[in-house]
TrEMBL record:
Cellular component, GO annotation: cytoplasm
Origin superkingdom: Eukaryota
Family: Belongs to the AB hydrolase superfamily. AB hydrolase 2 family.
EC number: 3.1.2.22
SUPFAM superfamilies xref list: alpha/beta-Hydrolases
Keyword Hydrolase applies: yes
Keyword Hydrolase: yes
Location of the Phospholipase/carboxylesterase/thioesterase domain: 12-226
Annotated Gene3D superfamilies: alpha/beta hydrolase
GO MF, one annotated term: carboxylic ester hydrolase activity
Protein name in UniProt: palmitoyl-protein hydrolase
Length: 253
């Protein structure tokens, strides 16, 4: 197995104290900084929070079979972009190991796992689902935009086994354009249905006329959902004022 590599990170810091984190994974051929720029161009105001750090890692270049083995920034390899294609588990598991350091960096910074949300666009959404369903089901949530899992994905089995054992699973938000010609809308809908049948709480949102891209209404929905999963911390109660004893003199007679 290849040695684990430290990933390049593009991050947007919170405007006040850092108490939660979002890890947002890009699609195939993109970079963390590329996704961050795309989000900033689409969403007005930006995907910025008072208390949440948004982290955009970059997948290291690797040979990518759908591009005839050319190097590309992808999270894993696959034979083709299809629900019927077997998963390339070796590359998926290797990247799960690599992304472990991104999660642990947040934990070391004092962010508990339930205050971390992981998501992604396209291939990044599929990577997020593998990472959360199979390795980190104790995070605060997962989102997948224009994404799908292969019909026989091991992620479905992992969710089902956890559900049967009575263990909690994080909620899933999926968004998909109904005009997507690269990752078909029904692939995303089928993924949501299978994860729900396996025991995951999943909400699937369709966007009319949207192709394989991000949109402002979609990102507004994602932003609102993130805030429901990672709300600002409650303010500390004000200290009670110190009571100064008072002395009264009484004259008798």
């Amino acid at each position: 197995m290849a040695a684990l590599r430290k990933l390049k990170i593009c991050a947007v810091s919170p405007t006040t104290k850092h108490t939660a984190s979002v890890i947002f994974l890009h699609g195939s051929g993109d970079t963390g900084s590329g996704l961050r720029s795309w989000v900033r161009d689409v969403l007005v105001p930006d995907l910025v929070f008072s208390h949440i750090k948004v982290i955009y890692p970059t997948a290291p270049p690797r040979p990518y079979t759908p591009m005839r083995g050319a190097l590309s920034n992808v999270w894993f390899d696959r034979r083709k972009i299809s629900r019927d294609s077997p998963e390339h588990l070796e590359s998926i598991d290797h990247m799960c190991d690599t992304l472990e350091s991104v999660i642990q960096d947040q934990v070391r910074a004092g962010i508990p796992k339930h205050r971390i949300v992981i998501g992604g666009f396209s291939m990044g959404g599929a990577m997020a689902l593998h990472l959360v369903c199979r390795r980190h089901p104790d995070v605060g949530g997962v989102f997948a935009l224009s994404s799908f899992l292969n019909k026989d994905s091991v992620a479905f089995k992992a969710v089902e086994e956890r559900h049967r054992a009575g263990l909690p699973l994080p909620p899933l938000l999926q968004c998909h354009g109904d005009d997507d010609e690269l990752v078909l809308h029904r692939w995303g809908a089928d993924t949501s249905e299978l994860l729900t049948k396996s025991g995951m709480s999943s909400s699937f949102h369709s966007f009319s006329g949207l192709n394989h891209q991000l949109s402002r209404p979609e990102l507004e929905l994602v932003k609102d959902w993130i805030l429901t999963r990672l709300p600002p911390p409650l303010p500390l109660p004000l200290p009670l004022p110190l009571l100064t004893p008072s002395f009264h003199s009484f004259s008798v007679g």
